[in-house]
Structure formats: C-alpha cells, structure tokens
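Following up on my earlier thread - several people asked me to post the actual chain instead of describing it. Fair enough. Here it is, all 444 residues.
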Amino acid sequence: MEKTIARKKYDSKELKTRIKFLEKENQWFSSAMEMIASMGDIHRDIPRSTDPSFIFSMARRYLNQLLNLKSLAFFLIDEKDNSFYLASGESGEENGRFQVELDHQVENGTFAWALKQNRPLLVESELFKGKLFLHVLGTRSHIKGMVMGCLNRKISKIPPEMGHLISIILHNTATALENGELYKLLSEQNKNLEETVKARTLELENKAFELKGNIQELKDFTFIASHDLQEPLRKVICFGERLRVNYEDLMDDRAKEYIGVMEKASLRMQKLIDGLLQLSTITTKGTQFETTNLETVVAEVLTDLESKIVKSHAQIIIGNLPTVVADEIQMRQLFTYLTSNAVKFHKKDVTPEISIASHALGNGYWEILINDNGIGINEKYCDRIFKPFERLHGMNEREGIGMGLALCQKIVARHGGTISVKSKPDKGATFIVTLPEKGPEMIY
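Reply from S.P.:
Thanks for posting it. Predicted structure:
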C-alpha cells in the first residue's frame, strides 16, 4: 500500500505574504552583512580625520544605510554651561524644529534618561508626527552629546543587531571628535612651543652676540693690562732701581725711604695687574677638559710647595681623591691656592695640620674637603673672601693681594662646581669644593 505524503496547502495570497516577509528579512540581513563588512571602513575613515564636518558626514552616511533617515541632527555639550548646541544638522527650517524638539525632550526628562542608555531609542514626537531616533554620542569615558533623527518609515523597535551597529558607529564618531579636539589642542601647543623656541633662540643668539662682545672687551682689557699698564710700571721700577743704585751716595735717608716705598708700591701694583690678568683669562684661555687624577695633581702641588711646607713644618694628610674630567692646569692652580693658604694662615707656634679628602655625593658630583687647624675666619666674612682684592689682614701681617680665592671660585665655576668655607676664629677652616665627575654640562 503506497504511503501518501501530506502536504500543507498554501493559498496564493498567504504564499505571497510569506515570500514578501522573507524578502524583507533577507534585505535586512544583506544590509547588516554589508554594514559589518564596512566596519573596517568606519574604524579607518572616521577616527583618522580631525575635521568635525567630515566626521559628521561619514557618520550620517553610515546611519542612513541602517535607518533610512529623513533628517538627522548632532547635538554637542557645551562644557562651559553643560547646555546642548546644534553642531551638525539639515536645512535652516529643519534645524529649528530639531532645536524646539531638543528643548521639549530636555524639559520632559527624556534626554536625561537617553544619556544614561548606551543604545538607540525611539521616542514619540508631536512636532515630527511620529517617532524620533535618539542615541547618546559618547566615548567610554566621556559623553560628547546626543544624536536625534527623524525616520523615513514607521518602525516599532530597532532590532538588537542594528542597535549594536549604530552604537559602534556613534562610539567611533565620538572618539574621532574627541581625538580631533585633542589634536587641535596639541597643534596649538606645538605652535606656541615653536614660537617660544624661536623667541628663546633669538634671545640666546642675542646673548651669544653680547657675550662675544664682552669676550672681545675682556681680550682688549687683557691686552691693555698686559702691555699699556705694565709698561709705565716697568719704567717706574727700573728708574727707581737706577736711582737707588747709581745715586745712593747723593740721597739722604728720607730720599732712600721714598725710593723704597715707591718700588714696593710699584711691585704691588704689578702683582695686582698680574692677578687681574689671571682672573680674566680663567675662562678665555683655559685648556681642554680631559680625564684628570686629582691625587696626582695634589702630589705635584705638594712638590711645588715643598719649601713652604718644610719651612712651616706643616703636616699634610692626603686621602683618596677622585678622577674627574677637568682642566688639569687649573686644577693645579686650585689646589696650589688652597694648600698654600692653609699653610700660610697657621697659628703662631702651632704646627700646621692639613688634610685633603673627598667623598662621592651620589649625584655625579664629588665633594672635596681641605681642612686646616689655622687661625680661622669670622663667619660673617665667609662669602666676602671670594671677592677679588678682599683681604682680612693688613699687608704687613700676611703677604698676598687678595686674589687667590677669587681665582679659585672662578676655576670651580668654570668646571660646573661650587666652593664654600666653614670656619670660626682660632678653630681652623674647611674649604668645601664640589666638582662634577664627568665635567660641566657646558664647557666655556
């Protein structure tokens, strides 16, 4: 017995309705697939632009493919007063309607509710005689505004799949707007920075030109001091000596005393000029900076000062000293002045005891301490002694012209370091020198 297969019979009207429904579903899925395929274009095109008009037009194009919109408006939040303003819309009349609708939706609380939703919403509008599409315009951390659209067709709800695509589009739009603002701000800052750099460069060029002029003036002074000022002194000293030698029998004691005073004053003036010359050439005639072992330098200095050290019976202890990048000749000058001073300013009938030691400060600098048990210095004069020609003792008490410590400060400054002193009367003195191990950042 043959089996009969039962088939459900459809009338032609029902079949046409079903086919029409399937065609619509197929159109939606085709459109959705096209939109999914175009997600790469959305991620590529929208975020890379910094022009708000282009960003809005791209978003408008993609939203129209999904929703078939009659009109669309983008409202942004003014951060000054938290109000909404129309950033991109349609014609003047349509924009007016959107603005009125905005005020109405804000007043009835719909906007406040919509801002908290991260999905497309449909709300009733009497003004537009139908449903409006709303969606927050925001990044993951910041709300930028709201999107409002009037639909060309009546729909009761937005399918979840379509809603996800819409959210992706508007999230990219908000991110692109935020990036554009940041890029604009960065561009303005870069422009300001460029202007600042140009102004600073011009200022430095002017300073360099001024410095060049000062250096030339210093060279001119050096030439004058070494030739024009020295020459008259040489003649005074020379003729004073001739008077004393050749006419000694013709001069009484007072005349001889005058000649002696004149010679001493001339020699002192010559030393002052030599001191000024040394001070002025510290920066202009220094030698190349190179790796310098300060233990070797101090050992050579003690050899040079051997006669003074023996004469005063000074006891000098040398600790570990660093190797630094420095002008070796000026380092010898520095330690010669400091060691010589420590020997010279000793207490009467007390054996001079001097120590030279150092330790690393941990910031690329070394601290070198030159300590003595000499006569010391009143604390109120501790800064003053580093000025040129400053003397705390009469010429008859201690020899010198008051230039040694000024030269020390100049040398240390050229090397990017510092020099100071701690002392009290009759308690000795400790001179503190800091020097960078790898040399100054800028070598004069």
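DSSP finds twelve helices and twelve strands in the chain. That should answer part of your original question.
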